[in-house]
Design goal:
The structure is a homodimer.
Chain A lengths: L3 H8 L3 H8 L8 H14 L5 H8 L4 E6 L5 H16 L3 E6 L4 H13 L4 E5 L6 H16 L3 E5 L7 E5 L1 H14 L5 E6 L4 H16 L6 E4 L4 H8 L7 E4 L2 H13 L9 E3 L16 E3 L2 H13 L7 E4 L2 E3 L9
Parallel strand pairs in A: 1-2, 1-3, 3-4, 4-5, 5-11, 6-7, 6-8, 8-9
Antiparallel strand pairs in A: 10-12
Helix pairs in contact in A: 1-2, 1-3, 2-3, 5-12, 6-7, 8-9, 10-11
The first copy, chain A, binds a DNA duplex through α2 and α4.
Chain lengths: 330, 330
DNA sequence: GCAGACTTGGAAACCGCTTTCCGGGAGGTC
DNA sequence: GACCTCCCGGAAAGCGGTTTCCAAGTCTGC
């Protein structure tokens, strides 16, 4: 590969001068030399070695994003928001996918630390297991001790800056809205019991029903994805309204209903959570709680880069969106 | 940050020994020293500086993937396939999104070159503009001249290893299948004229119709995304069957039909291309041409890493999948 | 015309790690 | 017991940049 030294030699200048011309510096270089250097660099096809720059400067221009699954539109939207924000700051992005394995997540933080990335964004739900959360916290603390910055989208469990969707409130509002339509018998496709996001949404929903004096919903646990929703929907009893704790599960539930000849919303109403853009053309249109996912991703990046000391936790409110997958009870 | 020197000092050994213990080497280190070093590293919370390793070793363990848009499930699936393959090789992934700007794509290749990534994967359709393709080729050539490896998913336009979906054949087969159902009047939502993937699919489709002695389809150009399909669908004339050159556009077209009270498939049949997994629950289920996207992404990574000299171009066949969005004409 | 303030180019130290090259000690062979 | 290997630890030379520190001009202003 072409090095700066090659360029300097070809241009007949010192390494220092070549560096100042090509790779940004506070110091000026005369027009004549500057032109010579630029021409030499171009002729040789020079590209600065960023590993060397990172080493010399002691600071890298890449950030790391850790998500569970890129093919899940929820994570894709969040990651996209963060990446757009990163691009405006001139930062590059390393993306890691854990496929929901917490060990992978810890390993990724270690790797990104080793890369000396400027910041790490952890996107996605934490599991409630204190042992694994503790190890993740330790790994993050190590990274931060060395000057690394971190932020998280999800629950405030890691002691870092956090963009936290208001899952409980959102689910509670949704419950009130659905109750307002006259529903009284609910089921919740609740996802995995140890997943905090899922548990919060479920709890918020059930709590609001309790406050309204309505009977507790039937709670059905299962995986947090489309197939989990599909499977859980089979177990729904006599509820008139089913709340899936995320949109992807709701879509699975709708598919299950369709296959079994259960009409939505005539026979049963279905609601989700997140308002995934890709699903906007789904039939029937999904009632859900809208989260500004792209903004949240971008916001998390800003928080991570922010120098301020105190850990900040930003609550992001969701907005109930009623669509045709639910009906008014008469 | 903790450096290897700190560890070596704390363990009372030389830098060389510490390096050999912690960061893999062909050479053995005695058990006693090895233990001392490991303990010191653990106490201090040492993480190797990968920038320094990359510099010293002259080889990095990251690969770059350039896609147009991560929130498009087509790219997400491809990227996910490549990332899984990368993970099995112990490689890290940098993802760049161009948002369909060819200049961005060139800039990303330059940046990844500067990062000295082990390989670059270019995912997504090329534009037909020879000027911009030429500049991208130049940039890639520069990178490869320095020992970089590259591969591409899409058209074989860059002179690098390529995984090429058989767009023409797939579209032709689809056309034959639809004609076999009795359709004779077709429209094609053809995407942008300069996008090679779109053009190939359109040409393959039209060509097959011609061979069957059917009239040429109405061709409507527009953006390559959901909204493009939505808008183009408004201009369809008296066709009984509409082919959108990708699934996302087809979904937009279906939405347009729905809004205008046009029933699918009763009033008009609609087909897409790609078989996006996220859309499997769409109603009506979309007739399409299935592409093994994850495999293609993984395959591209393997090709890129492959040392062999001759440029290889792998055709990937699509498989026509007839679903309820098309009907048999009687 | 000259002191002093700015500019600008270059030499060299340094960033954190890998790896070659040396050297000393242990173990094996005859 | 001498000689040869083999094994393993350490010193030091890079890897490709950045940046500090000097020194030599170049401009000012009076």
């Amino acid at each position: 590969m072409v090095t700066l030294e090659d360029v300097a030699k070809q241009a007949g200048v010192s390494l220092a001068t070549a560096s100042r011309v090509l790779n940004g510096s506070t110091r000026q270089v005369g027009a004549a030399l500057r032109a010579r250097v630029e021409q030499a660099a171009d002729e040789l096809g020079y590209r600065a070695n960023i590993a060397a720059q990172t080493l010399a400067r002691g600071a890298s221009n890449v950030i790391g994003i850790v998500v569970h699954d890129l093919t899940d539109p929820y994570f894709a939207a969040l990651a996209d928001g963060a990446m757009r924000a990163a691009a405006t700051e001139g930062l590059l992005v390393m993306v890691g996918t854990t496929h929901r394995d917490p060990e992978q997540e810890i390993a990724y933080v270690a790797t990104l630390h080793a890369q000396r990335v400027r910041a790490v964004l952890l996107v996605g739900s934490r599991v409630a297991d204190p042992a694994v959360t503790g190890r993740l916290r330790d790994e993050l603390a190590r990274y931060q001790a060395g000057g690394g910055r971190a932020a998280c989208v999800g629950q405030d469990l890691l002691g870092v800056d956090t963009v936290a969707p208001a899952n409980r409130q959102g689910a509670a509002e949704l419950a009130r809205a659905l109750a307002g339509l006259g529903h009284t018998k609910f089921a919740v496709l609740a996802g995995p019991p140890h997943l905090v996001t899922a548990a919060d949404r479920c709890a918020g929903f059930a709590g609001a029903l309790g406050e309204l004096g309505l009977p507790a919903p039937q709670v059905i646990h299962g995986p947090f994805d489309r197939d989990g929703g599909y499977a859980a929907a089979q177990q729904v009893g006599d509820a008139t309204c089913v709340f899936a704790v995320n949109d992807v599960m709701a879509v699975g539930a709708l598919a299950a209903c369709r296959e079994r000849g259960i009409r939505v919303p005539e026979d049963v109403s279905v609601a989700g959570f997140d308002d995934i853009v890709t699903l906007r053309d789904h039939v029937p249109a999904l009632t859900t709680v809208r989260l500004p996912l792209k903004d949240m991703g971008a916001r998390a990046l800003v928080l991570a880069l922010n120098e301020d000391d105190p850990v900040v936790v930003e609550q992001v409110a969701g907005e109930v969106v009623l669509r045709e997958s639910v009906r008014r009870m008469t």
